Amino acid sequence: DAGITQSPRYKITETGRQVTLMCHQTWSHSYMFWYRQDLGHGLRLIYYSAAADITDKGEVPDGYVVSRSKTENFPLTLESATRSQTSVYFCASSDRVGDQPQHFGDGTRLSIL
Amino acid sequence: GQQVMQIPQYQHVQEGEDFTTYCNSSTTLSNIQWYKQRPGGHPVFLIQLVKSGEVKKQKRLTFQFGEAKKNSSLHITATQTTDVGTYFCAGPKAAGNKLTFGGGTRVLVKP
User: Fold this and answer.
1) Which of A34, A94, B41, B81 could disulfide-link A46, Cβ–Cβ 3.0 to 4.6 Å?
2) Residue A5: how many CB atoms within 10 A of its CB?
3) Residue among B3, B24, B33 at smallest CA distance from B71
């Protein structure tokens, strides 16, 4: 899906460092989501946003911070990375929540050493 | 909280054979969505079912939503190597709620 892009695609960092994952969508979708994907856990929702300046916690929000100053961008920050946050992170967007398909970015593979 | 379970977790299928994967929710869902994720890729939306007992087909894939709107199934006929990937179901407890994803069924095809 060319309409939603994540950067970087791969990132290696050390414990305790701050790292920000970027997500940009061109569809003007109201809703944006951050998921993490780990073996055996499927997709778990970290945070989501209904509109600019409106964010809410998902299933696993601890250790993460989000912001949404513009509709098209939804960055995810790990303020002090831990090894347990090594994962593949997916950003997604949709026009409405729950009854519309979500469109996913290509993902960021994050390794924390 | 709402839980969505998928069985089996892994499915090894001989090319040409049929198989079914199941999705069960602990709560009634307003709709069910299915996604496919190819190895190394991202989840891609396949289909959405809304009505109780609804059945939809996409070529060799048949999707069904249970009468009680708490379970769903995906049946693939004459499996091909292109069917390799992980299939996720997801649904909201009510309209306007976030999606809860199942753990996925990872499908491996033996040529």
Assistant:
1) A34
2) 15
3) B24
pLDDT, one tens digit per residue, over A43-90 is 999 999 999 999 999 999 999 999 999 999 999 999 999 999 999 999
Nearest-angstrom CA–CA distance, A44 and B99: 10
DSSP 8-class letter at B104: -
Instruction: From chain B, pick out residues whose CB is under 8 angstroms from the CB of A44.
Output: 101
Q: How do B19-25 and A4-7 pair as beta strands? A: unpaired
What are the beta bridge partners of residue B62? B57, B75
How far apart CA A38 and CA A86 sit, in angstroms, is: 9
On whether any CB of chain B is under 8 Å from the CB of A102, the answer is yes
- The answer to whether B88 faces chain A, any CB pair under 8 Å, is yes
Tokens of A65: 């911070």
Buried b / exposed e along B9-41 (16+ C-beta atoms within 10 A): eebebeeeeebebbbbbeeebebbbbbbbeeee
Q: How far apart are CA A56 and CA A60, in angstroms?
A: 11
